[in-house]
Amino acid sequence: MVFHLTSIRRLAALAATALSTLVLHAPSVQASPSVFPTGVTRYDPQKAYNSFVLFSGSDGHTHLIDMNGHEVHRWDKSGFPAKYVDPALVDDQKGVVGLQLSEIPGDGTHKIPGAVAGFRDRTFGYVDWSGKTLWEWGTQAPGGNARQHHDWVRLADGGTLLLANQNRNIPGGAKPVLDDVIYNIGPDGHIRWTWKAGDHLKEFGFTPEQLALVLHAENPDYLHFNDMQLVGPNHWEQEGDKRFAPDNIIVDSREANFIAILNPDTGKVVWHLGPNLPPRGRKDSPAPFPVNQFVGQHDAHLIAQGLPGAGNILVFDNQGEAGYPAHPLQVAAGSRILEINPVSNQVVWSYTGQNSGGAPWSFYSSFISSVDRLPNGNTLIDEGMNGRFFQVTPTGEIVWEYVSPYTGEAPTTGEGHPTRSNWVYRIQPVPYDWAPDGTPHTEAALTTPPAP
């Protein structure tokens, strides 16, 4: 085909006109791709542990999804975190969850920009499947606000443990801080016991030099506890090691890089790991290996009896920036899952992105996030800052993956620069029979298309 010069010029003029129209009407340029995969991206029902998954999304709602990503139920409130309550602890009632029920108005007490719900909790409580409030607490708290954050535990006697904040002066501190406290609250709302982290700083393993940095920390949220659970029944205690008594409480500090167990009867710290551990090399040795420096970790807990690895500590090692002095972010950073024998301090199993055939940074969340051991030996992971949930086999094969489609204000939003994210603080696997009878779910396999 032959084009005359005039025809070519005419086509060029039309193209220029079309291009100018496209530019004039194009949306503002985005810094990130305009299309993201959300929902379930891969799923092998034969290799995965199949259950519901519960989480509070960035949209301010709490979602219960099945393995195909279908939302089977929603609560209008969010939790920090949302967790389900064992029916045995609430007169066999199914479908009960714990959530933050009301917020402190105005700017509240939060110290992290964008973390509106997380640090502005006025009342915490339990709601049923329909959203009806069964128990609410907060106006009875010091200052009239619960200020619950990061964790809570329903107790067998109907009481509740709450991890909360108080503004206070700590012994030897240079200025008022946002201290982490634990309340043991009776079913009637009466506070039966209070524990304050700032009264126990010499028990966490700081050197004198580190303790001086802690007492003069610039960040008011100087310890930032992000985890509080009962130790629970375990073989260590059954073999005579009372540090792991079931009613003892395990916590971890994101800012100070330690995990600790405290005795609620004495208030004393009876076990701790960190803050000072051998430096992590460029590559971990095959497990088992002596535990090395975790940084900014989350969700440390003893694996429950009856699950593979029972009695070991499972923790999401963010490898974020934290510590006194702070461990800097690495150039090619990646997060880790560590399963630790708490008596020998040996890592007996670990997971990084490389275990799934990716680069170290293919699995990374510098803050938030969670991890759970599943009954079939798999591990469920929340890569929190990316809203990505996935389940891996002991060898690192990813057999289920989901990306949250629920977005909201990002927790690191700067003033005048609003951003959105699908970040998710914590997730929880939920047995099918916890939900009311007749709650639907599907288990349709989904394979990932091969790379081009």
| Average pLDDT, all residues | 89
What is Rg?
A: 24 Å
Indicate the low-confidence ranges by residue numbers.
1-30, 108-117
What structural category characterises the helix and strand content?
mainly beta
* Ends distance: 34 Å
The major pleated sheet works out as: 5 strands, antiparallel
Helix content: under 10%
Percentage of residues in strands: 25-35%
Helical segment count: 3
Oligomer: single chain
Protein described:
This protein has three helices and 28 strands. With 452 residues, the protein is mainly β. It has a domain at 51-199 and 404-437. The strands form seven sheets. Strands 1-25-24-23-22 form a five-stranded antiparallel beta sheet, with no helix packed on it. β11 and β12 form a beta hairpin. The longest helix has 21 residues, at 5-25. The chain is globular. The protein starts with a helix and ends in a 22-residue tail after the last strand. Mean pLDDT is 89; it is low at 1-30 and 108-117.
List keywords for this structure.
disordered N terminus; 5-stranded antiparallel beta sheet; mainly beta; 452 residues; 32% strand; 3 helices
Outline the fold blueprint:
Elements: H1 5-25, E1 39-43, E2 52-56, E3 62-65, E4 71-75, E5 83-84, E6 97-103, E7 121-127, E8 133-137, E9 148-154, E10 160-168, E11 177-185, E12 191-196, H2 208-215, E13 225-230, H3 235-238, E14 249-253, E15 258-262, E16 269-273, E17 289-290, E18 298-302, E19 313-317, E20 336-341, E21 346-351, E22 370-373, E23 379-383, E24 388-392, E25 398-403, E26 408-409, E27 420-421, E28 427-430
Antiparallel strand pairs: 1-25, 2-3, 2-28, 3-4, 5-6, 6-7, 7-8, 9-10, 10-11, 11-12, 13-14, 14-15, 15-16, 17-21, 18-19, 19-20, 20-21, 22-23, 23-24, 24-25, 26-27
